[in-house]
Fold these 3 entries.
Entry 1:
Amino acid sequence: MSGLAGFWEAREIWREALLASVLSGALLGFLGVWVVLRRTVFVSAALTQISTLGLIGALLLEERLGVAAEHLGVQLAVAIAFSVVGALVLGTMHGARRLPTEAGVGMSYVLAGAFVILGANKLIHVAHDFGSMVFGNAVAVSLSDAMVIAGVTLVCATVHTVFQKELVFVSFDRETAEAMGMRARMWDGLLFFTIGLAIPPAARALGALPVFAFLTIPASAALLLVSRLRPVLAIATVLGVVAAAGGYMLSWIWQIPTGATMVALAGLFVLPGGLLRLVRAS
């Protein structure tokens, strides 16, 4: 109880960080259903790397220009631009005769990762912050960061509410949709635009590792429990919230890394569905 009491007493410190974590968990859990069902898990991994590359590029530019204070808004804007462009390219890319789509995604992932490492090696002042970006350390998040995530969540929720019918049709019955005259690549672009938009602000608050985890684990856990799309979306969203909030709370009480705790807790949610499948199969 003392741990919980201490956590509550420090609410003035973690209030914005917990809000950002919960919003990110909900948003990424929801979007992760589309990522998993469309079998584009490695696209999300590549976008996480590309977003980090944009952030590293902004930091390097600031250092080269001799900017004393970090411009956090500019850094985030650059990361979002990198991620959205990458999402539009990778999400609408179709395999050529000699080069399958997976090859392009794989190359994007490893090249972005390599340039992130090379860029981070050149950074002088933010090595500790770079570690937090990758592994997650959402102990202190500003209100402005939380509001950005809230705004992105609102945009993504609006897009998926207004265009849900088209996104579902193109995603799961593409040939029929194209036969009816729907511009499948345009709707693919809209879907991946929301994914690319969500990753940078969430990665800024939680780190790249939890972002990739929340885009895969809650959706996978939900799909093991139910099969209909709307329940899957609802369950994945709730699991994302619980993993983010619970992981944050446990990491605070136990004094362990925040991002890794969130990921580990999310991983536990796969067990009920896995056990249910085993029971059904026996």
Entry 2:
Amino acid sequence: MRPVTNLDDYRAVSRPGANLPPEDSDLVGVPAPPVPSLGGGWCARAVDPDSFDLELVHGWMQSPHVAAFWQQAWSRELWDAELRAQLAGVHSLPCLVGRDGTPMLYLEVYRAARDQVARCYRARPHDIGLHVAVGDLALTDRGLVRSVLPVLTEALFEADPACTRVLLEPDVRNKRAIASFHAGGFEPVGEILLPGKVALLMIHSR
């Protein structure tokens, strides 16, 4: 992994009020996160909580390798409410990503400027953030994430021409995820403090 050399491009500013998220007026006209239209044999779709998707996501979140970093091993009822809330809003969109009709990854596509991460770096209104989980332990360490990330970021840039940056904020202890994200085209920017974790901000620019 190359040394970080661009911290000042993104670093929070130590000036009162400098790191507040964009005002609501700055986000007028910024749409909800898009469902990326993937190529290369990959497919993505929004989660449907009225289908088996709910059982799938709930089950994945109970898996120790996911729960250790997501900390969302909630009940089925709580996940039902969470997915419906995301789908009804303009902040985050829960998706399933897979191949040949088989879901392999749980993905949350979110507007970083509407998220708590916007207090940690200088967010732009159209920045898109990602939360990524490989639900099945048997599918980890097989290059899925590093393979899909370039396809995913390109699709997000195409879906939102005003978006110039896609970001990830893995827990600094999650070395497996950090290595996969870096191999998938994301550069480390610096550590940030988020509720429940110290995260490494990683960014892929258009």
Entry 3:
Amino acid sequence: MANASLQPFLTVQPLGEGVGNAGADESFAMTKETDMRDYRDAKAMAKAMRNALSARDVTVTHSEALEIVARQFGFASWNVMSAKIDEDGADRAGGGIALEQAVPIVRIFDVSKASEFYLDFLGFTVDWEHRYGDNFPLYMQVSRSGLRLHLSEHAGDATPGGNMCVYMTGIRDLHKELLAKDYRYMKPGLHDEGTRLEVQVIDPFNNRIRFMELKSR
């Protein structure tokens, strides 16, 4: 038996974590509506993780699974994440409209190129992956510092050439980090646009991400 406490950066695929445009696959509608999860579903994801690992003869405790899920969502620990869940629950108890963070779907065509760009270059980590079978398109969630993106090989999920704005702090540090990676296909600049600083990157599929830091902050 392996002990996952020795694998602090373990990434697994929670069972049923699939979304994406499955074309003629009739199960897609139900999957899309019921299986899209965020950090508030941490306990369910931890349970799914333990079940998936158990099937592979890997043992983790419930608390270890919660810590892993918390790190996947960018929290320092389960205690920090749990406090955030409680805070959100209190906000919702007051009623009214509550809009949540948008999660862009980004069309990709080559998994290795996407991984090189989003994981190795931009520093995202994989939260989960989904395929309907061994030779099916990939749909996965990546995240960094609270920003989540869905990368999809499914036709119809999104159109190449998308453009998104990401407001942030610490953009000078990000710029230095990206240049230090010495990524062959991208050497982004740091641009002063008057009211903001901006770093723009373009992925191998012509999708643009514009990182912006407002000077007024």
